[in-house]
Amino acid sequence: MVNPWLVDRALDSLARHNPLVWSRDVVAIVDFGLPSSVPRFHLVDILAGRTTSLRVTHGKGSDPDHTGLLQSFSNAAGSMATSEGAYLTGDTYVGVHGLSRRLTGLDSTNDAAEARAIVIHAAWYADPALIATQGKLGRSDGCFAVGEQDIALLLARLGPGRLIFAGRA
To answer: 78 exposed, middle or buried (CB, 10 Å; 0-12, 13-18, 19+)?
Structure first.
């Protein structure tokens, strides 16, 4: 279940950034108040009325002791932290982690996302099998990293021009 407070914040962001978000069939809400061991990247299909939830990493700078819980957000270059706020999904590209999706930060809390190369990508350290051995996922450099088994679904369902809202209650 998606935290109702985060749903309200995501809907407020959708209204505020309405001219930029040209596809409103699917919205993503990422609940960084939850540990990395549980699905917290929620794809909300507004038309079908269903939600698909996936596991996602947070940045090393947001959890320096690697507890599995995000401790703080940062938008600073070099912080290797996760940033909160609304993102606009962009085009896909093939990078060091394979097929990935560019993101644009829409708020002052994440407007350095492009300069920091914050994107959606797959990574071995986001594989849910790690939970069995270490109780949590690994950490990214601030990107939304998911397991390799989830990236195709995520990129297909969350195409360009859609909103991602990342926060915690």
So the answer is: exposed
Q: What backbone phi and psi angles, to 5 degrees, belong to 68?
A: 95, -5
Q: Are the C-beta atoms of residues 22 and 161 closer than 8 Å to each other?
A: yes
Q: In the 8-state DSSP scheme, what is residue 74?
A: -
- The model carries a pTM of 0.96
Nearest of 21, 11, 25, 158 to residue 92 by alpha carbon: 158
Using alpha carbons, list the distances in angstroms from residue 15 to 20, 49, 106.
10, 19, 12
CB-side exposure of 97: number of CA atoms within 13 Å? 24
CATH level 3 topology of 4-167: L,D-transpeptidase catalytic domain-like (2.40.440)
Q: Please report the pLDDT score of residue 9 as a whole number.
A: 97
- Quote the percentage of the chain above a pLDDT of 70: 100
List, for residues 61-119, the tens digit of each pLDDT value. 999 999 999 999 999 999 999 999 999 999 999 999 999 999 999 999 999 999 999 99
**Residue 96 contacts by C-beta under 8 Å, 6 or more apart in sequence?**
none
